[in-house]
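FORM 7B: Structural annotation worksheet

SECTION A. Query
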Amino acid sequence: MKLNELSPSKGARRYPKRVGRGTGCGSGGTSGRGHKGQKSRSGGNIRPGYEGGQMPLQRRLPKRGFRNPFRKEYAVINVRDLKNFEKNSVVDREALLDAGLVSGRQQEVKLLGQGRIDHPLVVRVNKCSDTARKGIESAGGQVELI
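SECTION B. Predicted structure
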């Protein structure tokens, strides 16, 4: 079988309904739109959420809360995630990105203290918890805030 020999199975594709081709076809005259009214006119469709002049649902419901536009998003990693890095290596954002621990869209990195490591590392992150700092320094490493 070749790519040019592929075809859809029998009955999978249908021809589109041809409307407005006379009364004999069953959808002539008004072309299946009925008589009069907004939806029978050309270009006469209503936008999503429109309720015929009634106050729409999205305006009836109360608005609550606040979304801070200046909020910073942190990529959170734990001490246990650093065990695959080599001894005395520098772990920064680029190294974490290469290891797949951080995605490209988060701007800053925060280190949390779950887990343990046995070898020293130099970790350069934006924020660090006290537990994480103690865990890395107890293994002989150091944490640098950037």
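SECTION C. Observations
The beta strands are 74-78, 90-91, 108-112, 122-125, 127-128, 142-145. Helices lie at 57-60, 93-99, 130-138.

SECTION D. Sign-off
Analyst initials: ____
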